[in-house]
Design a protein that fits this description.
InterPro entries: Sig_transdc_resp-reg_C-effctor, Tscrpt_reg_LuxR_C, WH-like_DNA-bd_sf. The chain has 76 residues and is mainly alpha-helical. It has a single domain, classed as Orthogonal Bundle (Arc Repressor Mutant, subunit A). Helix content is 59%, strand content 0%. The chain contains 4 helices and no strands. The protein is globular, with a radius of gyration of 12 Å.
Amino acid sequence: MSLTLATPHAEAPVPALAPREQETLRHIAAGRTYLQTARHMGLSKHTVDAYLRRIRAKLNINSTAELTRLAISLGL
């Protein structure tokens, strides 16, 4: 499943998020810590951090609040 978004401040659609990036975003938006997310997904907290850095870079997002807003708008 590919995820492509159009943001209000950008005319071009943003890059798609990989399934594991979507899952990570869903956990963080639900209020879980990096460590809780890592344990739930069977990863290290460093891998969770890497996924979130990739999401932030792809979508030009700088804060957890923006990540949460995005997750809500996507229905994650």
